[in-house]
What we know:
The longest helix is centred in the last third of the chain and has 18 residues, at 242-259. The chain is 41% helix and 25% strand. The chain has one domain: Rossmann fold, CATH 3.40.50.300. Strands 6-7-8-3-9-10 form a six-stranded mixed β-sheet, with helices on both faces. The protein has helices at 15-21, 54-61, 83-89, 105-115, 120-133, 149-160, 179-194, 206-212, 230-237, 242-259, and strands at 2-12, 27-38, 42-47, 69-74, 77-78, 90-94, 167-171, 198-203, 215-220, 223-228. The chain is α/β, with parallel strands linked by helices and 261 residues long.
Amino acid sequence: MIEINGLTKIYKLSAKKKKELKTNKDVKTAVSDLSLTAKPGEITGLLGPNGAGKTTTMRCVATLLSPTKGDIKVCGYDTVKDAQKVRDSICFLTNEIKLDEHFTVDYLFTFFGRLKNLDEKTIEARKKELFDTFNMNDFKDKKIEELSTGMKQKASIVVNLVNDPEVVIFDEPTSGLDIVTARVVLDYLKKLRAEGKTVIISTHIMPEAEKLCDKVAMIIGGRKVIEGTIPEVLEKTQTGDLEDAFFKLFMENKESEKEEE
Length: 261
Ligand SMILES: Nc1ncnc2c1ncn2[C@@H]1O[C@H](COP(=O)(O)OP(=O)(O)OP(=O)(O)O)[C@@H](O)[C@H]1O
Ligand SMILES: [Mg+2]
């Protein structure tokens, strides 16, 4: 379970970032008073345009960033006060995570398992399950540097799932993957859901969200503009699919992006 209560995240802007964002302001409000609950046995989707605040929200949930205001509970633990307890129960995946190129997938899997204090038997059992599921057996003994981009991504997903986490936070799960690999990843997220895990993802791909998510929240300019099951969102917006709903909400709310600091 993830409970986000009134999350606000304000970044202090460095001189470099000010230049990049073309602003004179010293701060940027990336997320504004956002509340959301992601339940076990469900896949919750964070949708929104570039710069909406999806990654920032996920980083706060994963204890990488502290909220400026509000609080977040993961499996009942506060992400600031009980950060280590939260880290023990989550897996935070992004396509930015890179593995050390010098080692094999098999070696790194065992290494990460030991880092998580798992015993050797558990590590081997997890390895078998995940390597089978993600079709990794053919290249498990290859060094990361020998793998294609998609294979590297698959390897970093598998390695990070070693501890069978209760909560999986996945920023853009299929970004950069071919359709076969993307399907393997999405099917695995469905498997996690069936096992009663809490899964939260971000995506730009509306048909993907439509097929996968039990609940979605759309964020625009750091604010949640709608939340609900897919039928609820379509009903509220009087649209036929999520892409139309997204555009409608975007047109209605894009001014709020500019109002933000
Ligand atoms: N470290 C940072 N310092 C300052 N501003 C930041 C920082 N990280 C993100 N931002 C700003 O906060 C806002 C939200 O960014 P975030 O990365 O959370 O968006 P996103 O929804 O994940 O976008 P995308 O779809 O492009 O991944 C953006 O305006 C971004 O420029
Ligand atoms: Mg992002």
